[in-house]
Design a protein that fits this description.
The protein is α/β, with parallel strands linked by helices. It has 2 domains: 1-39; 82-241, Peptidoglycan recognition protein-like (Lysozyme-like), CATH 3.40.80.10. It has helices spanning 2-42, 117-130, 183-200, 210-214, 220-224, 226-241; strands spanning 82-84, 104-109, 139-141, 147-149, 167-172, 207-209. The N and C termini lie far apart (96 Å). The model is unreliable at 1-17 and 27-47 (pLDDT under 50). It binds zinc ion (ZN). Zinc ion binds at residues 108, 210, 216, 218.
Length: 242
């Protein structure tokens, strides 16, 4: 047993020698490459030569445009309290399909407590790569009251099933599982809905919950507390005159 053990040990040490030799050669090669690279980057030692910038000769890929013009009125300019951060046109979150009419506004909650408007916008954009599901909304309101437009007004978003074709959708972020909007988000929702109601001459009964379209518990707090939804509709009316 001892003999076999030592023979094994001997064979092992031969193998190790080869490994060490190969390792040493690789290290030497790596060191040589690093020296060459460092020389290449250093450039002339004048001290004030600007670092060469990477230049891209290829033209940037143009963002695909919707193939059809919008069929509903689209305001020329957005107010400065709406940030436009459009999704790329793709079949999973922004099909580029024109809305056929604009008859209502559908309110949603994101269903993912504590996430920001930007994160939800990026999630919709990521669906174009991920292909697991299709979802999006025209607007997202964040926890700080920020408003992102990610599917243009006049284009179909994937949010409200059968009503995608004739309504604009607003997703609202929320701090916790209850789905209750914080004051900043709530105030922005009032501002945005009233801005849209004014443009499209819509009464408050054109403002509906996702629940009213499909029966889904969305926006959760306003489904569980219908009286809070009624208060919201009253707040829309009140804010008209302010
Ligand atoms: Zn919804």
């Amino acid at each position: 047993m001892r003999y076999r053990g030592s023979a094994h040990k001997y064979g092992g040490s031969l193998r190790w020698n080869r490994v060490l030799l190969a390792g040493g050669l690789s290290l030497a090669l790596l060191a040589l490459m690093m020296v060459l690279l460092a020389r290449g980057q250093a450039g002339p030692a004048t001290g004030d030569t600007p670092t060469p910038q990477l230049t891209f000769t290829a033209e940037p890929t143009p963002m695909p445009q919707p193939t059809e013009p919008p069929r509903v009125y689209v305001p020329d300019e957005l107010p400065d309290w709406i940030e436009e951060d459009l999704l790329p046109i793709n079949e999973w979150s922004r099909p580029g399909t024109p809305m056929e009419a604009m008859t209502g506004i559908v309110v949603h909650y994101v269903g993912n407590p504590g996430t920001t408007a930007k994160q939800n916008r990026n999630y919709f954009a990521w669906l174009a790569e991920d292909h697991t599901t299709s979802a999006s909304s025209n607007f997202i309101i964040g926890l700080e009251g920020e408003i992102i437009l990610c599917v243009p007004i006049g284009e179909v978003a994937y949010c409200s099933k059968d009503r995608n074709i004739d309504t604009l959708s607003i997703e609202v972020c929320h701090p916790d599982e209850s789905g209750k909007f914080n004051q900043a988000s709530y105030d922005s929702l009032i501002k945005l809905v009233n801005w849209l109601r004014n443009i499209y001459d819509l009464d408050t009964d054109a403002v509906i919950r996702h629940y009213d379209v499909t029966g889904k518990e969305c926006p959760r707090y306003f489904v569980k507390h219908p009286e809070a939804w009624d208060t919201f509709l009253e707040d829309l009316k009140k804010a008209e005159t302010e």
